[in-house]
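The protein record reproduced below.
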Amino acid sequence: MNDTILDNEKISGEYRQCERCVMDTSAPDIQFDEQGFCNYCNDFISKAKPILDESQDVKNGKLKILIDEIKKKGKGKPYDCIVGVSGGVDSSWVLVKAVEMGLRPLAVHMDNGWNSELAQNNIERLIKKLGVDLYTYVIDWNEFRDLQESFFKADVVDIELLTDNALVAVNYREARKYGVKYIISGSNTATEGVKMPPSWAAFNKYDKKNILNIWKNFGKGYTLKSFPIYSTVDSIIDTFIRKIQWNRFLDLLDYQKSVALEVLSSQYGYVPYPYKHYESIFTRLYQGIILPEKFNVDKRRNHLSALVLTGDMSRDDALQLLENIPYSDENEREIDSGYFLKKFEWEPEQFENYIHKPPIPHDEYGTEFFAPKFYRIIDGVCRRLNRFR
């Protein structure tokens, strides 16, 4: 393949789009080769495809070793692994497969006050049918609202940094509590293998300093008693000292989201969402309104590109979805907007003013380390130490 990079110019006033996936120049750092293929799908093919294309026999061998290790190290304990469940397809499928393979998981859910009724019902039906224990950690709503409002006032892009950080913290907390050495995650290459543009999210999901600095600058002075904040140092201690492994379990399976969804729907009464991560009301609003209107970010491009590149969806179907608003319909969009304003006690003008304020980079408020590169080095080392991650 010729890797000559062409300019990121707009064509005929429109955003230029990759000829293979559905990423486009809304990602500021996108580049195209002479075939019109972008750096995002080229990166996916060079780094992610080898994982997906590994023979199932090899994967089965790794999977057997992993399952045997989990059972061995979990012997005599009430649970041998932790499975974080959000109500989404990926984490639900992990829980199903873990039980099928004879593991004894504790399902862990983090409730930040934004669960949709559909997500709660999906989790309840799954837990009941599988017969596993569920632990739900509830964050005090006043605390979480204060944190979220701080991120709104800071005008940073990754408001979901708060949820992502808390999710990780709760899973590791339960692993430590029960002496469990394995957290089995729904993170996977098949649906998440296309990297996120750096400008679309915070670079470090464990950035405790960034979270606290933003909160101290803009918060109302609540004491953070229930928010389980997690730092990069915590991650290093859990990985290197406590030897807790965070496993990308689905990468060892022949995982096709469409197949998983069909089984979940037919056997567990699972009801799907229109897009990835839409089990949360706030995430729907964030990805469907805030990101595209304030930050010119449509995360559907990233998520759908992964499905296109793995063959789980045609490019034409992905492009057709992108022609529609990132909601099932305008009515749902209005319902979510109204719910958000009521829950946050905001007037519509307040939200409108927020949307039109210019974005501010996360690092304007300070980070745990001087550069994102340091975090990536640490994370890379952790991944190499964990052969199943």
Remarks:
- The chain has a mean pLDDT of 89.
- The radius of gyration is 21 Å.
- The domain at 56-277+364-385 is CATH 3.40.50.620 (Rossmann fold).
- Residues 236 and 379 are 9 Å apart (CA to CA).
